[in-house]
Amino acid sequence: MADAFLTRLGKVRLLARLVLFLTLSLALATQPVAAQSLLRDAETEALFRDMSRPLIEAAGLRPENVQIVLVGDKSINAFVAGGQIVYIHSGLITAADNANEVQGVIAHELGHITGGHVINFTQGANMATSITLLSLLLGVAAMAAGAGEAGAGIMAAGQQAAMGKFLAFSRTQESSADQAGASFLNKAGITGKGSLSFFKKLQNQEFRLAIPQDDSYARTHPLTGERLAALENVYKSVPSWNAVPDPDLERRFQRVKAKLSGFVDEPRQTLIKYPETDTSIPARYARAYAWHKSAYPEKANAEVDALLKAEPHDPYFLELKGQILLESGKPKQALDSLREAVRLAPDQPLISALLGHALIATEDPGNFQEAKSVLRAAVARDNSNPFAWYQLGIVYDREGDSARAALATAERYSLEGNPMLALTSAQAAMAGIKTGTPDCLRAQDIAMASRGIIEQSRDTSGAKRLAKAEKRIPPVTTCGGH
What was the pLDDT predicted at 18? Predict the structure, then answer.
């Protein structure tokens, strides 16, 4: 009997750990993905904006408030983690056959946003926690009364019930997002064929991995077969089922997919996927990145020159030409291509930031004023680019404006999630910036926000670092420049 009791108790502990692990994992999924690598690319972000806009509008959201962000992760996944941001793994883009499949994924994730599923996560967690705590209390009470096995059984049953309740809650959310996403596609007049084909792709992957298909009870998502059956009726009953996908979006998607392959895959894999016998634009695009990564600038330039011969006024080909020259140690030669790219795409701050970097890299003081101008324009359009702030800080430092160099550095560290260095830099900036100016107010905002983040940390070492910083840096609360 003692052995049976210990075995049962061991199972209880295991189930408790599983519940705790699941809860913590899902809780972490609702936090910003600062720990993951975000891939920034002007062409990709423009494509995401254009392919998602009709879906965002169909969802009743404002396109300017929704972001589609690319995460450097080879797994096939997409998720939302609070706010109106959809994160798409690079592996999903490379796995998708066409733009319509990605639109189906975006529509599903928008369903999570409009359904408030990240916010409502606590509701499911609270239900599971309540069941867990109640079963633990009843189990302990039974054990205290001398019914050890009965108490362990109550606790084990409670843990299983809590897990089942939570998983059922998650499956309900996924089914709801499926239906919402289908309605957004239909309302936007976009066919659901891509959505279904991508689900079939996932189902085939499950078959290859021998994932059971007969019981969804222990899963966070409904069975893929169940989802396909539910969505087929919704998609095939509306006129948009036979809508023809936008050929321009498809052309752009194939370019971005190839470009991404060249950027994230091993060069050998890229050259197998896009052999030199393939002279299409996507293939040349992929190989240009592969050769550049492999330190073959002549071959990379040859591919880009072929692209520019086909489309001489494409800003993204010009951007790549400039990038290859810059990163090959030829910043002066990169300027003409990058200047032309900025002229052709003035609304692309990432290209402007690259031009600013090239201007600084020439080490020619005559280029610094232009660098400051294009970098200030870049951060005005996109102030969430730490690289642009870093380059702007260099320009200010070269000009001898240490206060604004410190402010640009504070912006950079704030974006990179380093509140201690952001606080240090912001306070240094405040010491040299005139009171009441916009730069003064911005430095104060960064300092207060960074201090708040540090003080909220329950990490003892963080508290010690704050104490040391306060001793090292005067407690500047107002700007002191003239």
Answer: 40
Considering only CA atoms, which of 256, 325, 188 is closest in space to residue 44?
Answer: 256
Please list the helix, strand and coil fractions of the chain in percent, rounded to the nearest 5, in that order: 70, 5, 25
Choice between 230 and 361, residue whose per-residue pLDDT is larger: 361
Output the furthest CA–CA distance in the chain (Å, rounded): 87
Q: Quick one: which of 386, 315, 371 has its CA closest to 346?
A: 315
1, 149 in Cβ contact below 8 A? yes
DSSP secondary structure, 36-88, as one string: SPEE--HHHHHHHHHHHHHHHHHTT--GGG-EEEEE---SS-EEE-STTEEEE
pTM of the model: 0.77
CA nearest neighbour of 68 among 113, 106, 117: 106
pLDDT in the model for residue 420: 94
Own/partner long-range contacts of 356-363 (Cβ < 8 Å, ≥24 apart): 356/388, 356/391, 356/392, 356/395, 357/326, 357/387, 357/391, 358/322, 358/326, 358/331, 358/334, 359/331, 359/335, 360/391, 360/394, 360/395, 360/398, 361/326, 361/331, 362/331, 362/332, 362/335
Asked if residue 81 lies in contact with residue 30, where contact means CB atoms within 8 angstroms, the answer is yes
Q: Write the pLDDT tens digit of every residue in 127-156.
A: 434 433 434 444 344 444 444 454 344 444
Q: State the Cα–Cα distance between residues 354 and 342, nearest whole angstrom.
A: 10
Instruction: Tell me the Cα Rg of the chain.
Output: 27
DSSP 8-state assignment for residue 367 = G
DSSP, residue by residue, 228-266: HHHHHHHHHTSGGGGPPPPHHHHHHHHHHHHHHHHHHS-
Burial of 332 (0-12, 13-18, 19+ CB in 10 A): middle
